């Protein structure tokens, strides 16, 4: 049992959801405006399951641990089911009447939840690693799909066809993530170690992250930045007015024989400086930049859209400033990450934590310092995915914040804060541990005497 210094809520295991004996590849829960109670998961036995997280089927450990059985299951025995592992399962952002799955059988399927029938099929050129839909979108209904092919494909639910493809990666795309501040911006991570930003309305990516381009420190909050900008703008404008009043050079029109205006530099036509207007991601020098020394296995945009967290097969976690595209150089403590498959990471805002599957445990790191704050141990085998319900979602559900983890042991564990820790008792907290037999029996929190 590894002692950790923690702060804030102490998390304990509250529920366990049995997904069979096959590895759970993905978990996804959406808080819709009507109920907000259903969890969606996909497993390597080609099955997809839906759980009602508000209605337990059994209790163990003196009523401390709630157990849930699936209310909807679609497996390979289903006539329209997937044939190989389900690598991605997401809810349709508007409600839970539809869900989308991606599989190693090269298909992305759109399902009707009530009838458990496929309403739309998209054939991909290779294994599907990850799918994503924008929760902000009001102008499109696109599914972004990352596969072992080098192109990102956008599937349009409205038309039932591919909208277009995004070309730029030199190897398969393991993870895709939509921006949380714009419905048009998509972020992709590939096996080539590159992270690319795309505006889906335009051709080519507009940014490629480079781990060698860095900046130290956090950006100031939005209100502070706007106040500083107003002050600097007013000063610069007053200085500019004084200078222009003192001296204003005469402007002459210079034209060539065709009457076209000349650029002041070398008399090159102004329209000839096309290279400066190209997207940075399309320039040869920046196009080969890498964000990780191995494959990019996980991406997560923070809720405010200002930062991006990435995980790679080089066992590195990096925090990026989205506006500048710079590596913030936060030194996350050494971890071991899976190298052969995509992982699903999660974040929380208050406190600012990132939850990362680290082999058989999930570790919570402080986003700004990189220090390990908590470790969640309970799975017997590798943890593949995690999902965290935010503060707003917890308020909507009138419940506590919860962390969902899915592992190769076929279990989905639900972790909730057991109690809030006062400032005086933080120093006495040693660790959070969970103990299991074949089924979950009990959990406890170790406090130093």
UniProtKB/TrEMBL annotation:
GO terms for cellular component: Cul4A-RING E3 ubiquitin ligase complex; nucleotide-excision repair complex. SUPFAM superfamilies: WD40 repeat-like. The keyword Cell inner membrane does not apply. PROSITE patterns: WD_REPEATS_1, WD_REPEATS_2, WD_REPEATS_REGION. The keyword Repeat applies. Keywords: DNA damage, DNA repair, Repeat, WD repeat. Coiled coil: none annotated. Transmembrane segments: none annotated. Residues 229-261 have a biased composition (Polar residues). It comes from the Eukaryota. Residues 220-269 are annotated as: Disordered. One of its GO terms (biological process) is transcription-coupled nucleotide-excision repair. WD repeats lie at residues 79-121, 166-208, 289-330. This is Anaphase-promoting complex subunit 4 WD40 domain-containing protein. It comes from Acer yangbiense.
């Amino acid at each position: 049992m590894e002692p950790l210094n923690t702060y804030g809520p102490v998390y304990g295991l509250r529920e366990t959801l049995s997904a069979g004996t096959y590895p759970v590849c993905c978990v996804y829960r959406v808080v819709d405006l009507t109920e907000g109670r259903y969890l969606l998961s996909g497993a390597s036995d080609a099955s997809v399951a839906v759980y009602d997280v508000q209605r337990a089927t059994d209790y163990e450990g003196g009523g401390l641990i709630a157990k849930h059985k699936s209310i909807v299951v679609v497996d390979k025995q289903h006539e329209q089911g997937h044939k190989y592992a389900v690598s991605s399962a997401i809810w349709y952002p508007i409600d839970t009447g539809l869900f989308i799955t991606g599989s190693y059988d090269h298909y992305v399927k759109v399902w009707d939840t009530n009838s458990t029938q496929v309403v739309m099929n998209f054939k991909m050129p290779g294994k599907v690693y990850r799918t994503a839909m924008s929760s902000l979108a009001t102008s499109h209904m696109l599914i972004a799909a990352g596969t072992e092919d080098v192109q990102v494909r956008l599937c349009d639910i409205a038309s039932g066809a591919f909208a277009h493809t995004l070309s730029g990666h030199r190897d398969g795309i393991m993870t895709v993530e939509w921006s949380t501040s714009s419905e048009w911006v998509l972020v992709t991570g590939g096996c080539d170690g590159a992270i690319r930003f795309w505006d889906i309305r335009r051709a080519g990516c507009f940014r490629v992250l480079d781990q060698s381009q860095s900046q130290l420190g956090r950006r100031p909050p939005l209100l502070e930045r706007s106040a500083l900008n107003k002050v600097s703008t007013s000063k610069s404008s007053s200085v500019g007015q004084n200078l222009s009043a003192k001296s204003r050079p005469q402007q002459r029109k210079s034209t060539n024989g065709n009457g076209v205006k000349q650029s002041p530099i070398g008399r090159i036509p102004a329209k000839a400086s096309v290279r400066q207007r190209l997207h940075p991601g399309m320039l040869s020098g920046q196009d080969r930049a890498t964000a990780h020394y191995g494959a990019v296995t996980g991406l997560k945009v923070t809720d405010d859209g200002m930062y991006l967290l990435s995980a790679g097969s080089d066992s590195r976690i990096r925090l990026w400033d989205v506006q500048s595209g710079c590596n913030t150089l936060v030194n996350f403590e050494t971890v071991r990450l899976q190298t052969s498959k995509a992982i699903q990471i999660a974040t929380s805002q208050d406190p600012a934590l990132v939850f990362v599957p680290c082999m058989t445990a999930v570790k919570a790191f402080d986003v700004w310092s990189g220090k390990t704050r908590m470790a969640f141990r309970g799975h017997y085998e590798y943890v593949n995915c995690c999902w965290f319900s935010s503060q707003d979602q917890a308020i909507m559900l009138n419940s506590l914040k919860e962390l969902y983890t899915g592992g190769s042991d076929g279990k989905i564990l639900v972790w909730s804060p057991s109690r809030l820790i006062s400032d005086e008792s933080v120093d006495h907290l040693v660790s959070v541990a969970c103990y299991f037999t074949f089924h979950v029996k009990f959990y406890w929190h170790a406090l130093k005497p």
